[in-house]
Amino acid sequence: MQTRNVTLSLPVELVRQAKIYAAQHNTSIHALVRELLQEKIFAEARVRGATERFLQLAEQGPYASIDPSSIRREELYERG
What is the tally of structural domains in the chain? Predict the structure, then answer.
């Protein structure tokens, strides 16, 4: 995976709290930012996928062969 350096300007107090949090969790601010960005981006993609699946089911109408109550939430995310 290629990486690229990014410079961020953050409030001093936020950086101080981030350093404390990172130290308490045996990680780095770099790792925290990367993890938070990945969570945010992938969560949005999962929601989009689940929404598309829901809309597909809705388009089939009340006579669809799939019972919406038979679909687990996890399955919607897996298909996203």
Answer: 1
